[in-house]
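Instructor's aside before we start: the two examples that follow are unrelated to each other. I chose them only because their records fit on one page, so don't look for a connection. First example below.
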Amino acid sequence: MELRERFSGRCLRRIPFQAYAYFCQATLRFYNCTNNNQEKVLISLEEFFIALQKAIHKETINKSKLSEQKNTKS
């Protein structure tokens, strides 16, 4: 099953922002604070793709929890 079949268009547009917010931003803050700002640490494309995978996994879990809650209320 492809992503477009599991997620709405709005959800697919939201995932890159969630990946950055949930999985990249805290890492960058940590590294940039601990190296005394001598050099800025950037995130690589590979690391961002890993963050995207994590965000997709998180969204899948949240979606399944939501559907479980709907089923138990019915």
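Example two begins here.
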Amino acid sequence: MKSRKILALEMRDSELLALEATRTPTSIKVTNFGRFNLSGAVAGNDLGNALKTLLRAHGFSGKSVALVLPNDLVEHRLLDLPPVAGAKLAAIARGQSLKDTQLLSVGDVDCRFIVREEVKEKGDTRKRVFSTNFALGELRKRLLVVSEAGLEPLFSTSPVAALSELGVACSQGLADSCRAILYIREHELHIIVFDHKGWLFSRELALMRGSFDDTPVMSHTEDAAGSENDFSDIDDKSPAGADTDSIADVAIEEINRSFLFFKQNSRRMIDEILLVSEDEQTKQIKLRIEKDLGISVRLLQVAELVDFSDLSHRVTQEAFAVNLYLPLIALASATDSEKCPNLIPEDFLERRTMVATKGIFAAVGFALLCATVAGYAALAYNERGLERLLSKKQESLAGRQSRFKDMETLMAKQALYEKKDLILKQSLVAQPPWDRILKWIGQITPADLSLTQLSIQRKSDGCRLSVSGEALAANAYDAQASFRAFCDAWNGCPFFSESVLEPVKLQIVEATPEADNSANGTSAASGMRHKVLFSMTAKVGGNR
């Protein structure tokens, strides 16, 4: 993934939260942030221009927008559906997701879903689907404002879905365990439970001494059906002696009720709690959780993913509130996530693509028109120049044709040279290994046999090797035995494909006197010796 500049926006009534970040493959580098009042623009019903002016005035330069849709305009559900696919799965998921939705009071409702996994239980295979219902009309209003400001809406989702993905990214070795993110944002306690697949459960609590939103968000599985809005069965399991006058006590009581509800409906335990910040209020809650609930608590290492190096002075001076901007950070992180549903309507994305395509075609057409007009004007302005240009082109073409003919001649010569070179290489490759052949002949020649002539003849079908010699011995038997041994070795030569033996002549010659090596030093008696004359020819190479 290449780096991309993302402008994350959250529009809440007359207030705007903005965070600009550059996404890299390893981190999110925050380059700008701010909290602004849009009450004047709301009164004048000119939110688009007001948003454009405000962002420019405060140094926001990003064009690609990721839009946070508030949690009160979104519902999340986890559905177990039959193992179907395509349009049938979409129809079933839509029907199950929109069943009994609480968002109809705010207008049109739509849904998006993502298939997480296939679950096998008791021989039955089910598809687990993460579904998101959202207020379509409210989302379109925000998209219209963003478009009027000259920005390009790229992605939209809820803080709960984005924070679940951020929690997975910040949690190593999650496996099948469940973890919960807790953070306090403007007197509201947010609880988000997730595993390595993503969101499982979420709830928002107003920390105002007993004033709570008792409507949790729980998966629509068979285990949770019928009890998702009912906390009466676990009220008696709240911590004994909880002091409701303390915010920490109230928070612990409601956290415990939420975890008990999750455990009862999903039959899973919370293994670890992740806190976003370590302010005094959060520290009290951390101590009470570890003491009363016995669950491990640690700090969510958001700093491992977020880089504030370019804004260190502003973060220090303005006391950058991680809890306040956490949904925007999570949104910028989840922009390209395949596990986080994009709620922007498809017709809006198609219309934006069509407008961009029309703009490109219009620009290209205008450029072509300008080029055509300029060309005709130049031709009408100087006809003689055109004639000279055509003459030069013809001369250039004639020169190119001449060079082309020369090139053809050169290519023909080159082909001829390559052919001759190939023949030469083949002849070199086919050259018999004469050094090895002569060495082999020397090895097979007996001591009483001598070669008197050796010749090589080159013919069209290969080379011929001819040898002549004589075998000399005291009697005819020994001379012929020496000759036969040489013939047998000659016929077995691996370098020869065929061998021809010419007629053998047996000749008796007078022996030459030889010195006697005995102690008396006398000469041996003279006698007769036998000589065998022969000639042999063999074809070198080829197959026998």
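The chain has three domains: 4-344, 382-427, 434-514+524-540.
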